[in-house]
Write a structure and sequence with these properties.
Elements lengths: L5 E3 L6 E3 L4 E6 L2 E4 L11 E4 L3 H9 L2 H6 L10 H25 L1 H8 L5
Antiparallel strand pairs: 1-2, 3-4, 3-5
Helix pairs in contact: 1-3, 3-4
Bound molecules: zinc ion (ZN).
């Protein structure tokens, strides 16, 4: 069993280390970003790269309903909603990288290169 679990990004649909992805959960029928590394292991979740490209791709593909296997009030395709979701995902990724950097330098360095296309 590998030390780091792998999940599939709902944006680009490529597998990646769970630690490099932002986790999404559904709360009260709405898609929310789960706090990094804290609880939220129960129930169905989805993971996404903290990049604008993947956030946009997920919305365009309507990936949320498929990922959560239920109708969810996910981010819509309006410019404002796309921008808000993209920002939230990217910021969550930055916070996760910061917290990882405090106790695992090698992982943090890995994180730095992850948004390179
Ligand atoms: Zn991705």
């Amino acid at each position: 069993m590998p030390a780091a679990s792998t999940r599939t990004c709902i944006g680009c649909r490529r597998p990646a280390a769970a630690a490099s992805l932002v986790r999404l959960v559904v709360r009260d029928g709405r898609v929310e970003i789960a706090a990094a590394g804290r609880g939220a292991r129960s129930g169905r979740g989805a993971s996404i790269h903290p990049t604008e490209a993947c956030a946009r791709a997920a919305i365009k593909q309507r990936a949320f309903g498929r990922a959560f296997r239920r109708a969810v009030d996910g981010p819509g395709e309006s410019a404002a909603e796309v921008a808000a979701f993209t920002l939230a995902v990217v910021e969550a990724g930055a916070r996760a990288a910061e917290s990882l950097g405090s106790n695992d330098t090698s992982t943090a360095q890995e994180q730095t290169g992850r948004t390179t296309p």
